[in-house]
Amino acid sequence: MPQAAPYKIALCQLPVTADKHGNIARARARIDAAAAAGAKLVVLPEIWNCPYAMETMRSYAEDIDGGRSPSVSMLSEVAAARKITIVGGSVPEMASGQLFNTCCVVGPDGEIKAKHRKLHLFGIDIPGDITFRESDTFTPGQEPTVVDTDVGRIGIGICHDIRFPELAMLYRSRGAHLICYPSAFNMSTGQLLWDLMQKSRAVDNQLFVATCSPARDPNSQSDFVAWGNSSLIGPFGEVLAAAGHEDATVIGEIDLSLIEAVRANLPLETQGRGDLYRLVDVERE
C-alpha cells in the first residue's frame, strides 16, 4: 500500500426535500463548508437530490452521459473550485430508457473519475411492516467500481451493495483502502443492520468503510424514512466518526498506517485457505 499522509473525510448527512434546486444548493453549501474545514474527500448520501420515492423518481432523473445533469455539474464545479475529491452520493440517472441509481466520483479537476451504478437492488417483505422492491423501478449496474483518486484507491458501493461481502472482498483484492457506501437504510433495516454491516465489511477486509445517509425527517409523511447515522469505520471495526439522525456533517481522519498495522498484527491474507476456497474476480478471469 502506498505511503500517504492522513487526510480528512467529510460525510454530509443532508436533509432531502421535493425541491431539487434547493437540494442541490444545500449540497453545494455543505461541500464548501466541509472543504473549508479541511476535508480532502467529501461523501454525499444515496439519492440526495430528490425524495426516495419510486413513484416520482423518473421525474427527477438526469442524463449524466449527455451532460444534462445539474446535480453532477454542481459537483464538478465545487470539486474544481475547492480542489477536492467528491464521492457524489447517488442520483437517479436515465440512460437508454433505463433508470439507474448512480454515484459519480469527481476529482479535483472537476472531471468524473468513475461512475458506479448500484449493483444490488434492494427488496424486502416484512409482513405488517414493509414491502418494497427497487427492481420495479431501477435497472442494476453491471460493473464493480474501484477508482484511483488523489487520496488513494477507493471502492464504491451504494446502500444494498454493502450486504454482499464478496464485493468488498473484491475491492480489497484490487487494492482499495476505503469503501464508500452512500446509503439510505430505512428505519427497519437501519436498526437491525446498519452498524453491523459497516463494521463487518471493515473488519473482514481490514480497511476503512464510510457510509453516508440522508438525514432523517421525523415529520415525513412518506413511506420511506431514512435511518441516518452516517459513519466512518476503521480497519478494526472502530467508529472513528459518526452522526446521529439529524442534518449534520461529520469529519473524520483516514490514516493508511492503521491498515498496515492491523494487517501486520493480524495477517488474514496469509492465514486464508486458498486451497479450500477463493475469491473469483470475474472481470479478471
Describe the structure.
- The chain is built from 7 helices and 15 strands.
- The protein has 285 residues and is an alpha/beta fold.
- The strands form 3 sheets. Strands 1, 2, 3, 4, 5, 6 and 15 form a 7-stranded mixed beta sheet that branches. A 6-stranded mixed beta sheet has the order 9-10-11-12-13-14, covered by helices on one side. The chain has a two-stranded antiparallel ribbon with strand order 7-8.
- α1 packs parallel to α3 (70-82) and α4 runs parallel beside α5.
Structure classification: alpha/beta
* Main sheet: strands, sense, barrel: 7 strands, mixed
Mean pLDDT: 95
Note the beta-strand portion: 25-35%
Q: Calculate the terminal CA-CA distance, rounded to whole Å.
A: 23 Å
- Count of alpha/pi helices: 7
Rg result: 18 Å
Task: Count all strands and give the number.
Answer: 15
Helix content: 25-40%
H-E order: EHEHHEEEEEEEEHEHEEEEHH
Shape: globular
Low-confidence stretches: none
